[in-house]
Design a protein that fits this description.
Elements lengths: L17 E6 L5 H14 L6 E4 L8 H14 L4 E6 L5 H14 L3 E5 L21 H11 L3 E6 L10 H13 L4 E4 L5 H13 L6 E2 L1 E3 L4 H11 L5 H7 L6 H21 L4 E5 L5 H9 L5 H7 L1
Parallel strand pairs: 1-2, 1-9, 2-3, 3-4, 4-5, 5-6, 6-7, 8-9
The structure holds flavin-adenine dinucleotide (FAD).
Flavin-adenine dinucleotide binds next to strand 3, strand 4 and helix 5.
């Protein structure tokens, strides 16, 4: 069946779409069950990889490890473990990396991490620890055959004095061995396009994968955006205004916003997307379907 001219075809033209999903390690048995339901829902979409975050200051060290190790043991997914430099010596961090290596993990998302006092406070490297994210990338590469992804900031990191300084930071991570960057979320696609232009002009050629925040709760997303330096356009706030006590409409608007964003990025030639899932599958699953992705069973039936 072909789609009417005014609608998009279900298979988008050009290179295939690839997605990755980010989860956070659960705090309780109930949250763990919910996470695994989400993983089971999203896994058949055959993501490129799935990543598991590392709590501020290493607070989820065990839980991140356990979640990633379970992904290796019980699924065919390729997990990536996030890791930060905060609050630990090199030796401690190297032990975490060795633990991943021994568990069969081959991909780490290497980050500096937020200052111990939280975003906005001054960052100080841990005595005896890795000094910077680039330093950590180098350390991980020295410990095994890891793929190393890093962060990127289309609106620059709040601590960066300028875009040039920010992109110097990315260049240092690439020189240290990073092979992919995943961006902080953004809602205005022109910010991403301009950032990628700047990065390419600087001679950096690794993939810059857009991080897509599917808005599960607008108020929470806007608060988080303020802390991380991501801007929330007025038009976006306007779309969610008054929907605090109307979850059904909130969800439909969130799906519409994310669909608009990713399909516009597809029009700009983007084919890889990293979804911040907040451990919830429904909206992300729907957006992936709009991108033309199908679960394994349906792919086989259509072949
Ligand atoms: C995809 C993604 C995943 C993330 N996952 C996690 C996670 O699992 N756990 C977690 O705790 N946090 C996570 N974060 C947040 C991240 O830890 C924070 O943004 C942190 O403040 C910076 O770490 P970074 O590695 O992104 O920064 P870096 O890449 O090291 O730095 C970003 C830019 O900030 C500037 N900068 C860095 N340090 C300084 C300094 N001391 N002085 C002046 N400028 C400086 C540089 O210009 C640099 O280019 C994630 C962010 C992204 C985008």
């Amino acid at each position: 069946m072909t789609a009417p001219d005014t609608l998009r075809p279900s298979r988008l033209p050009g290179a295939p779409i690839r997605v990755s999903f980010e989860f956070f390690p659960p705090k309780s048995a109930e949250a763990e069950a919910a996470l695994w339901r989400s993983i089971e829902r999203l896994a058949p979409l055959d993501p490129d990889f799935v990543s598991v975050t590392y709590g501020a200051g290493g607070s989820t060290r065990e839980r991140t490890h356990n979640t990633v190790a379970r992904l290796v043991r019980e699924t065919r997914l390729k997990p990536a473990a996030h890791l930060t430099c905060v609050g630990a010596t090199r030796r401690e961090i190297d032990d975490v990396v060795r633990g991943y290596r021994d568990a069969g993990v081959r991909h780490v998302v290497a980050l500096r991490g937020d200052p111990a006092g939280g975003p906005g406070t001054a960052y100080e490297a841990h005595p005896g620890g890795y000094d910077s994210s680039a330093d950590l990338v180098r350390g991980i590469r020295a410990l095994g055959d890891f793929e190393v992804s890093v962060s990127a900031y289309p609106e620059k990191h709040p601590e960066s004095s300028s875009f040039d300084a920010d992109i110097d930071g990315l260049a240092a991570k690439v020189d240290a061995g990073a092979t992919r960057a995943i961006t902080q979320f953004f809602f205005d696609n022109s910010l991403y396009a301009r950032y990628v232009e700047r990065v390419r002009a600087r001679g950096i050629d690794i993939p810059i994968i857009p991080g897509i925040a599917v808005i599960q709760n607008f108020k929470q997303t806007a608060n988080f955006a303020r802390k991380t330096g991501a801007s929330v356009p007025d038009w976006l706030a306007d779309r969610f205004a008054g929907l605090e006590s109307d979850p059904a409409t909130h969800q439909l608007v969130a799906a519409g916003v994310a669909a608009e964003q990713v399909l516009d990025l597809v029009d700009q030639g983007v084919r890889d997307f990293h979804f911040y899932t907040m451990n919830r599958a429904e909206l992300v699953y729907a957006i992936c379907r709009l991108l033309g992705l199908k679960p394994e069973g349906e792919r086989a039936a259509a072949a």
